[in-house]
């Protein structure tokens, strides 16, 4: 168990100690307090984590769009229900902002209670209408593995992080949240939306990664999408008991071979030895003016061809804009900064700063670095 937790990138706990974790846990059942009485969340929390929550919880920093942006209806016969766009949604658009109805630790360190008993106790703290909607969620787990309530949680849980106290053997920051609407999103290996969690306001935003047409299904990635099709299908079958048939997995073998290679390249991009640090590129006159820019442009092209805007897309756009800024290329700097700005729907302050740079490029902090620093004599 220790090795599994320490090696799990999602949990980010390289020094985890199971015995110390269990020995320092004290849980409570807690109903999160919101300003609006219509919202309800029942949570099983470490007492130290519960004490860090605001009461009442502040309103989300972004709101669901006005009007109906989605509807829940039948996907294909094997996928059950799914979420579909009720109107055209632009890239970066907020589809819905939602609070969880259930929250529990990723690892519940109680040997005296089964998880199904704890989840059932949480459901008793919710309204009958909410419980009925919970019970209508999908369950991919067989009866031989767990009961229905636990199966629904394990099928639909979304990883969220909560603040944890700075104490020896703290609770894991990663928790599980159940969301009645967002949990309806089906998987795609080239998702058109992503989750974005705000622990301060206890709200999960569903954000469009690229334009979504009215009537199109809204999808997210259940697993890391950079692995090969065979590896993705194996993981999804093990975790969710289905064989992926999304448009990216249904490609012909020849296309899949190229797709697997592209995803492998993207997975290794940031560790690539050929990618010099920005300042090194600025100072090295022997290096091509477009070395960094072209590397990030290739990544952008691969991302767009594979539908993987969920993978650091904004970081690549930032890097390209930064490169053109260092080269004093006003036209390209403005074009790429504009694209980078549109990738920040949840960062209005950052968007305003980037708009200022578009208006006056010379206010960009590294404007002209490549053209000036590379002319300095080197020690």
UniProtKB/TrEMBL annotation:
Domain SET residue range list: 68-223
The protein, known as: SET domain-containing protein
Organism: Mycena metata
Lineage: Eukaryota, Fungi, Dikarya, Basidiomycota, Agaricomycotina
